[in-house]
Design goal:
six-stranded antiparallel β-sheet, mainly beta, Jelly Rolls, 2 helices, NanQ/TabA/YiaL_sf, YhcH/YjgK/YiaL family protein, three-stranded antiparallel β-sheet
Length: about 150
């Protein structure tokens, strides 16, 4: 997991070929004007523009998630968002039917090891080994979830 601001994004571009594409798009776009939906940026890089009411930590941990095929870059646009995190290697209580290949998601029933808070123009990068619970807080949250194919 990496947490930083969009101003420092170039620091991470060499970590994955799709990161430069993603961060170039984010820096060149009026992010506040984006409407909810999916934007196909390039092969292997898409952005989900999401807006919704924040939820309690208890509710968010019911969808404590990770992915196998994508790295998430979650960039906060509006509001204040807290997220829970735990290393996947420490998670054993798989929720439901297990991994969904179609949706590239696996849910766990676990407690977070730590919580952190993002403010506008801050991002977090979640790798497959990062189990995360987003959208914790109060009020409206607007964010981008960049899916970078592995």
């Amino acid at each position: 997991m990496i947490i930083d601001t969009l101003n420092n994004a170039t620091t991470y571009q060499s970590l994955h070929p799709g990161f430069k594409t993603a961060f170039d798009y984010l820096r060149a776009t009026d992010l506040n004007s984006l409407e909810t939906g999916i934007i196909e940026v390039a092969e292997g890089v898409k952005i989900i523009v999401a807006e919704g009411e924040a939820r309690s930590a208890e509710a968010a941990l019911k969808t404590f998630e990770c992915h196998n095929k994508n790295i998430d870059i979650q960039l906060l646009i509006g509001g204040v968002e807290t997220m829970g995190w735990k290393p996947r290697k420490d998670c054993s209580n798989v929720q439901g039917d297990g991994y969904s290949d179609e949706n590239d998601i696996l849910f766990f029933e676990e407690e977070a090891d730590t919580f952190f808070t993002l403010h506008p123009m801050q991002f977090v990068i979640f790798y497959p080994e990062d189990v995360h619970a987003p959208m914790i807080g109060e009020g409206l949250i607007k964010k981008l979830v960049v899916k970078v194919a592995i």
